[in-house]
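Collaborator request, handled under Task 6.
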Amino acid sequence: MATQETTTCYTELDSPIGVLLITGNGSAITGVYMQDGRPAIGDHWQRDDLHFTAAREQLQAYFQGERQHFDLPLAGEGTVFQKSVWKALREIPYGHTESYGELARRIGNHKASRAVGLANGRNPIGIIVPCHRVIGANGSLTGYAGGLERKKWLLAHEQAHMGQ
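Structure tokens returned to the collaborator:
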């Protein structure tokens, strides 16, 4: 029996950190990818800018310093552990950072900082699920799928717009 390939909807959005690829399954956002590490657009993908109107508007408002929280349905695919990390990422306040160890403690497993780092790196919904807010224990900027320059830009952007 052949399996039917599901259609992935997508759009692209120009941003101060480059063109973002936003993907969805028809009812929720499944990915927000930067130019580095973004998936290739497949044959079964369908561009649908209208489907992503809310995501585009909210991301544009974020980049203009007018939005600190996102209100979008999300459906990132991952393990139960990864999803618990991604949920915890959304609880890091705008303009703040947290270390991998602090995040591991917060999800109830203080010894899992490396696993938290791996889950953080597999976050498919960048910016909206703010993996850029996680830093090294010594305060250093560590790995980021979008590149450290983008991570630095996002953190500085949030710091500059925190009080608004």
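The cover message to the collaborator said: "The chain has five helices and six strands. Residues 144 and 151 are 7 Å apart (CA to CA). Please let us know whether this matches your experimental observations."
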